[in-house]
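Allow me, if you will, to draw on your knowledge of protein folds for a short while. I am sending you one protein, given as its amino acid sequence and as whole-number tokens for its backbone shapes. Kindly check, if you would, that the fold set down in the tokens agrees with what the sequence suggests. The record follows directly beneath this note:
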Amino acid sequence: MSLDRRSFKVGIIAGVFLVTGILAGIVFSSRFDWLPSAASSPAETTAAPALSGPTPPNFVPVVKAVMPAVVNISTTRVVKQGAETSSPFMDDPFFRQFFGEEFFHRFQMPRDRRENSLGSGVIVDSAGYIVTNNHVVAKADEIKVLLNDKREFTGKVVGTDPKSDIAVVKINAKDLPVLPWGDSDKLEVGEYVLAIGNPFGLNQTVTQGIVSAVGRANVGIADYEDFIQTDAAINPGNSGGALVNARGQLVGINTAIFSRSGGYMGIGFAVPSNMTRAVMDSLIKSGKVVRGWLGVSIQEVTPDLAKQFGMKESRGALVSEVIPDSPAAAAGIQSGDIITAFNGKAVDGPGSLRNAVAQTLVGKTVKVEVLREKKPVTLEVKISEQPKDVAQVEGDTVQGDGKDTALAGVEVRNLTPDIARQLGLSGGIAGVVITGVEQGSAAEDAGLQEGDVIMEINRQPVRNTSDFKRLSGKLSKKDSTLLLLNRHGRKLFIAIRP
């Protein structure tokens, strides 16, 4: 009986160990079943699936080709410092007597301060011509150019153009690597671009992005703006560097960023290569930029103005004034014409027309398409060189007749020679001068100002207050009114909706 009990107990214990071993084997097997068995061959091992989808673009060959033509530009200029005292003790009579006047005079002598800045540039000619930004080299006393192969040269400014923020620098070297020009007019939104330069002094830095907009104007960076907008990272030091397309062609010169922090925020601007090349050629040839001139004052066609002139969409450039003896005057362009095309290209707005005219060769005859009295007219204009100075009966006051009309609340008086002189206007201008604009009126909302001279109402001449009263009295509460003004010597169309 005791043997049987022992055997029974032993059997129970053995069973427990057996079950435990089986369970342990199962757990061990489940935790390490990723290990290949000794019997399995490498060919039987399951491989991870390959990634599917489009292959990311590889810009390595492009970068290797263009990098040698992008240089580092460092400038130094000396700033004269005024005499300053560095301590309140400097003005104390006791200390001045103790140390002597000569001691204090030595500390108060004006000292020169050296300012250093960094930028980038692009070699565009093997003879040593480098394109960069005007603001990179402006007022520099010394320019150093560091090449990709670590050679350093002293640069000399060939010419600058603040109006486009482009400058040309020359170094005494030959057989240099150059970056081929691309046609910026063919650049499209969505194209890949690379920005190459020296941000924060980090030489030969490449960033990648796309073209996010073209023809960007009214940014407030330069007088002539037709910027390429990109999200390729541009930071301080990138100015003057290259913006290249996926074919390794120079399509722009990186110029500025839009930033509230001083650093990159996703929007950068580059001067188009076509504008850059035209400016560069002119600077090298004559040391200055020779721009074409049409001789008109132009303004944007707003939706209200487009409606007044019978247009379905707001496009083109509205001629508010034709300068006497100008190419436009000789060709027959008139105030009130809307220029819709210039030299075969559509005009989107005043900016595009201004840039197109400026880049036209002096002496060239081009076709100009205008909308006149709702009818298309084609004229031929011979472009001339832009002048250096181009910027571009007395009685009581009366108010516009009619309550809640476009000219309600506008107070005017006759324009006398004395008033014209006070306003800085030339002789021969007829009209009425605005002496008051009611606050909250439609005229104030449209932008009418005191001192504006009203020359026309709905294309009808206004010679005096009688004309103003007569024409304003014909307006109804629903009439949108078109005015031709003279503001500070410049003509301007304004549409007013009551």
